[in-house]
């Protein structure tokens, strides 16, 4: 073999040795990368699986403090380690259970750490533009519009072509004559049952930081001088201690005004956040009377229906029984109510709506949740003409999708607000390959 051939053989041997080494290195690196990605996937599967278990358990549990007896739990699962911590935070005007789930895979030695943060809350009933357990044969008639979410456990009764711009959920479906043609612009569902609260104990509990009265109470949010007059017996009766109050904050610091075992009468102009409630005691009380228009200082909607960003007022009206529009001479034929109304065992009703009540329009900007849908007026089913009481002009306040009046009742079950994942590894993890 010549000198040149020998050099060529040696060169090829060196090249093959280097290629072999590189191929081995690449193969080893590919295996390490595969293993590392497997660890990433396993740690993510662990956190997301546990987050799903937590969300399912929270959705199935109606207790006020479900699932965890302690704020933190450490455990192992599928070869990884887990820590689940529960905290309470306030976001977007609401209180949330925040679960932080941290998983490490593998459990020992260097590994991948994945974290899932899950926020859960009970939804306020004020998110509904309209809610009812019983429709009581009352019809949605041609020309009526519902702009927000509607829910009923009953069947919707349709006359003509009312328009529903929000999601409609009717457990019993809908019915109408041959000409009924409802317009559902954001889907129609026959969903599961959603129940009103069994009592108003949460509102009563919050009254320790607010105001609690046990006799018939009359509250006038006076637009003329901006003060709040609170009297017993009538609007000209004896003022309670501290009345007149300079503001809602001065009157009821946490925004929770409750009358227990008696009835509440309200009227006037709201400047601030407040929930006014009547809670029955045995067979006594539990009704709220609207004695004149009750509006916000700044209108919640602009002309055309857009949200007025300058409005920061919010009213909740909650009754164990009925919210009643009083048929008195001081109460105008047409009336405006700004706020969200909830009637736990009754409904919104206009006194004498089907007999002597003057013909007018009820303008509600907010939401209405009631056990029984009750009458505010009557109309001729043939002509559509108003016969007695109020024609309805109801508009949804879009702010109620994410903001609720103080101490407003919540639904029994939890829902997921947000779900956030993040993964962590040491900065040298991919180089060291441990």
Keywords:
elongated, 17% helix, 4 helices, 434 residues, single chain, 41% strand, alpha/beta
How would you describe this protein?
The protein has 434 residues and is α/β, with parallel strands linked by helices. The protein has two domains: 35-123 and 415-432, 2-Layer Sandwich (Pantoate--beta-alanine Ligase, Chain: A,domain 2), CATH 3.30.1300; 197-408, no CATH class. It is 17% helix and 41% strand. The strands form five sheets. Strands 5, 8, 11, 14, 15, 19, 21, 23, 25, 27, 28 and 29 form a twelve-stranded mixed sheet that branches. A seven-stranded mixed sheet has the order 18-17-16-20-22-24-26, with no helix packed on it. Strands 1-2-3-4-30 form a five-stranded antiparallel sheet, with helices on one face. A hairpin with a 2-residue loop joins strand 1 and strand 2 (80-91). The longest helix has 58 residues, at 3-60. The mean pLDDT is 85.
